[in-house]
């Protein structure tokens, strides 16, 4: 199965078209096409593999890249590391790896968590424990120092490079083992994993036709790891999510929360692979029930979500790829496990060998097909569509400018041919003045619009922050009933859990709603500015359409990833103690609620900060793209004005030197030659524009 083949073809086609347009263009248009080519050549398919520990994620990834026993899969991990498998990336080595280590600040954050949370908890809620794995992380640090000895301090903030990956090398950096002295004695297992920030593996795999990064993330049921910001960053930069589920417990609450979060990532693709079906009894019937149950629960949890649900066995795939086994061995396995009773690979298909049948039954061919489809028709297609939309804007501007130049040249030819040299000079001077005036109008309009957009962005940012803060305050006030309900009047201070999941869901809803409102408001402002600038340009350029629009701007939706675990606050009531010992203790509600407020605010602060950052970054990208299109109109007018001045000066120079019929004929010949050059350019533009639009252009127009 070839992955990304259609995407490779389309990128190549668009690259050829942009190269031809760049060679035809001049000035800023050349720079624009160069920038689009650079983006096109730098594109990479980014896939994040996510799943609970023991869901078979590493085994599945090994099968996907065609390398059995590559990622460690049989080690009982204490912690794992974000691992990027960089496949066929231009500029990367053909093999080897690089392992980056945490620096002091990063390591301290991993060990100690958010200091504001801990300080607030210590001051206001003595029973609060926001990091249930604090002792484990401290033990990990001690374990790392003990194992690495004097090298520990020297390695922080550094990295290790390897030209080749030897057996067991990955286990030294991405698997920590059990953290015991016995594990230490197992050689290099987990030697550096506690301080490894990221692992980059370089691979050259012919079956992948586009540059691809597959990110192996830590298990989502490890609460220490899912809270880690580096995992969230890995998800943020990915376009396709491959979620591994175990057939034994296909959809836990953690899985539902994770998938719901991924489904909010805008246009990103989510593929679910239910692994380990080979371990099921009454396999055929169980698989059908499991898939139906997963589909039903996802439909309920994420009604608007679109998912591809697959199932299979990474173990079967690994066996099928094991060249040491004979066809007879594999045939015996197929019979023993009654694989022919399953329709995973399609019972109507014909297989040349038992090995092919087993591999098809593993579900990996369908997983590879789903990934290829997501690349070619999903994230990759959307990326190329964005490049094409940008190129079409530049093509429209080039056509407008070329048509304007041709129109001017034709006018001058007619005037010179008729001997109306003085009229030609007067007309050109008049149009120069009009173009200069139009240019000033457009620039002034753009300056005003830029100021309006900046103000509007700030207003929407403030509104987002204010509404989130208000909702947090309302949420905390609503917990007063919970706090009072837990007070039984017996004088005992009881423990309770405050669930933060509803708060997080509400904040996410506010975030997306506010973004949609801001996007529509700013789009309207940019559209009005575009219409005004286009009208001004058309008046001075005799109705030549600029062919510029505000369609296909980036940032239609905004995606941001948060920790995937549902958090809760464990609190104790703070009692008000009287000096009269016979009086029953009473709850100090004010102090308890103040403590809850501070701890909750500190706990959700990283998420709200990330929302605001994503809001501003995505909106800024959209507004900058819109401003660029407004600037393009000004560029068309400016370029036309400069071209007009240049040609006028050339004509004046010739006529001032020799205002004779021969001199005018020389000018006419030059003007006719210039028209031929422009006509050639317009033909190239028309041909490339048609090719860029694709074969279904006429159908769409109809």
Report on this model:
- With 702 residues, this protein is of the alpha/beta class.
- It has a domain at 449-637.
- Helix content is 60%, strand content 10%.
- It has helices spanning 5-24, 28-41, 57-64, 104-112, 115-124, 134-148, 151-155, 169-174, 181-184, 223-226, 229-236, 253-263, 283-301, 314-320, 327-336, 354-361, 364-417, 421-478, 480-486, 501-540, 589-657, 661-693, 697-701, and strands spanning 45-51, 83-87, 97-101, 159-162, 196-203, 212-216, 240-246, 269-275, 307-311, 495-499, 568-572, 575-576, 586-587.
- The strands form three sheets. It has a nine-stranded mixed β-sheet with strand order 4-3-5-2-6-1-7-8-9, sandwiched between helices. Strands 10-11 form a two-stranded antiparallel ribbon. Strands 12-13 form a two-stranded antiparallel ribbon.
- Helix 17 packs parallel to helix 21 (589-657) and helix 18 packs antiparallel against helix 21 (589-657).
- The two termini are 37 Å apart.
The quaternary structure here is single chain
Identify the strand order in the major beta sheet.
4-3-5-2-6-1-7-8-9
* Number of beta-strand segments: 13
Mean pLDDT: 78
Our Rg estimate from Cα atoms comes to 33 Å
Indicate the percent of residues in helices. 55-70%
Instruction: Report the portion of residues in β strands.
Output: 5-15%
Task: Specify the structural class.
Answer: alpha/beta
Largest sheet: 9 strands, mixed
Unreliable residue stretches: 75-79, 124-133, 178-184, 223-227, 576-585, 696-702
Number of helices: 23
End-to-end Cα distance, whole Å, is 37 Å
